[in-house]
Amino acid sequence: MFFLLGGLVMAQLRVVGRVNSYVSIKDIETLSNQINTLEIMNANHQTTIQNLREKIDAYLETEPASGDLETVLRREVAQFKILSGTEKVYGPGVVVIVSDAEKPIVLGDDPNNYIVHDLDLLEVVHDLKNAGAEAIAINGQRIIPHQTSIICNGPTISIDNVVYSQPYIIEAIGDRKFLEAAATSPDSYTNFLKQWGLFTEVNTSVYLELEAYKSRINYEYMIKKED
Q: What are the phi and psi torsion angles at 199 (to 5°)?
């Protein structure tokens, strides 16, 4: 860039010299303005280059042992996959089992009060999420926000168009103490189901393994906004 500045000045002076040996104040001001403009452009380019270097350094500092930017980016993508639910994961957590009431239906009662509905599973999942669950599955089917559909289908429940029957086994990875408290406290939805006579059971586990979300992730209306 500095070579460009010097070359432009010399070229302008040569032109002025051929036309007239006298260099006016206006000519000098014009050349000065052009030099200032190019200096600003040069400073901007240097800033851009420095920003890019800092970004590269930041990536490399996250993995100083490997020093391989591609490796760092691949691991970052893998982390995003874990967070999105599209990777198989494992860890400690709880297992909540929910199934229909075992007691006989009382004459005059609504039979629907004795079976598990989609809303029941959604509420249990909601309690676990609020307690910090990092990954959740129902009967082995991974549950992810804004994508998983849980719909009643008579005595069965459809999860992402796959039909499951009771018992419904809800596995959640996270802090075992917090998750257990969320599923057994007097105010929990699991306890509410128990009060209604449905079967519920809560157990902690030091190791749970949840499969990746298998269904296709679709967004029909949400579009990424470019900076």
A: -80, 130
- C-beta separation of 210 from 88 below 8 A: yes
Q: Where do runs of H (alpha helix) occur along the chain?
A: 2-19, 25-62, 69-84, 118-130, 176-184, 189-195
Enclosing domain of residue 64? 2-80
- The pLDDT tens digits for 196-205 are 899 999 999 9
Residue 99 sits in the same domain as residue 194: yes
Let me know whether 93 and 170 are in one domain: yes
141-182 pLDDT, tens digit each: 999 877 888 898 878 999 988 999 999 999 999 999 999 999
Task: Examine residue 216 and state whether it is found in any structural domain, yes or no.
Answer: no
User: Quick check: pTM over 0.70?
Assistant: no
Q: Is residue 217 part of a domain?
A: no
Task: Report the run of H or E that residue 152 belongs to, with start and end.
Answer: strand 150-153
